[in-house]
Each structure stands twice: as C-alpha cells, then as structure tokens.
C-alpha cells in the first residue's frame, strides 16, 4: 500500500513537472510575441560574422612552472587567417533577452624555434622545421537586460557563460606534444547601440572578466546598416585578448579581427 501511494505521489509530481516545463516556455513565448507584435519588433535574430584575424602576441609556457616560454608566432605566423562566428538572439520582451554564439578559431603553421623548448614534457630543438597549432573555440550563452532605451541610445548589461575548447600542439619530426583544455568561464556582458539614423547604428559589444589567474576580453565595434526591415549588414573591428597564468599553463594571446556581418531578424 505504501509503495502504491508513493508511486502515485511521484507520478503526480512527474506529471506536474512535465506540465510546468511545457507550459511555462509556451506562456513566456506568447507574452514575448504579443509584446513584440504590439511594438512592431522582431523577437529573433541570427547573424553570421566572418573575416580575417591577426595575432600581435601569442606567448606559451607549458607547464607554467617548468616549461620554456616562447612565442607560438614563430611557428604559426601573425596572420592573416580566416574565421567566422555564428550567433542567435531572442528578445523575450523589451527588457530581457538571450543570445548564443558559436566561435571556432584556429591558426596553424610551420617555422623554427629560436631556442630549445621544453613543452608538455617534450624537448623541441631550435632551427628545425616545427609545426604549431593554436585552437581556441568558444561556445557562449548570454543573458542581457536593457536598462536604458531612449531616443537614439540602447544600453544592456548581463552575464555570459563561456565554454572553451582550446589546444596548443607542437610537432617536430617524430616528436609531438599537445596541451588541451576544456573549461568554463563566467563573463560580464555589456553592449551599447547608438542610432545615427533610422537605418544605421554604431554598436559596441563586450564580454570580459579579469581574475588573478587570468583574464578574457572580447570587444567588438561595428557600424550596422539595415538593408531592409529584416536584413542588415555590418562592418567592424574585434579584439580578443587574454589567457591563463598558473602552474599548469601560461598562455596569453592578443588577436585582432576585421569582419563583415550579415544579420536576419524574424
């Protein structure tokens, strides 16, 4: 009897949770749709960004307490390298919104080291052809709150959860070593939009945070022009800087991007 009662209570709880998880998003979706329709706004957006990037710094020491510090640019070069990123946005209502971003990035090249390098417990000789790979893929989810929206200005603040998939690898003849890292980092999000006209705006977008063990800064500035009420075209500059400094890893890079973006709202 107790088992039957327990199963009944658990079953009721499961049904209520299923109802809750189904109807709450539907309810929020309807509210957001009504609010957007009332104001003539589009709630969803997708944007593709692509262009070229260069390095001004990419210093590595692995392990961070006993490896040899060297510039990975001796192998990969400074660039340019092609890249793209894909993002999507959802404005729940005029104040609250969400965004997701997929940003793969990789540079690879062959050069020679200027000194003997101990990297990831392997020794690499100077003056010998060596292949280097730098990968820093990121996946981000952002919540943002519009705290100022008047006349030509819109200002938003929020938080971004970043998942990184990073790798640094060296290959020299039959010797190879790599350091991979998959981790999570919380970042502060800020963005600002200033409308120059009904169809053209200046946009600044920032994700970043600094702690004693390292930092991450991603800042973009672009001019965006509405081709139609749904399509937009952007031209901008982005800088990405940061890294980690601990016993396991010392890695700091500074990258610069020039890009075009194409956006669609629906």
Write out the strand line-up for the largest beta sheet, numbering strands in chain order: 1-3-4-8-9-10-11-12-13-14
Oligomer: single chain
- Classify the fold: give the CATH topology of the largest domain: Lipocalin
Q: Radius of gyration, rounded?
A: 24 Å
Strand content: over 45%
- The CATH superfamily of the largest domain bears the name OMPT-like
The total number of structural domains is 2
Q: How would you summarize the topology of this molecule?
A:
Layout: H1 2-39, E1 44-61, E2 70-71, H2 73-76, E3 81-91, E4 96-103, E5 106-111, E6 117-119, E7 122-124, E8 130-150, E9 153-172, E10 175-195, E11 200-211, E12 214-226, E13 231-245, E14 250-265
Antiparallel strand pairs: 1-2, 1-3, 1-14, 3-4, 4-8, 5-8, 6-7, 8-9, 9-10, 10-11, 11-12, 12-13, 13-14
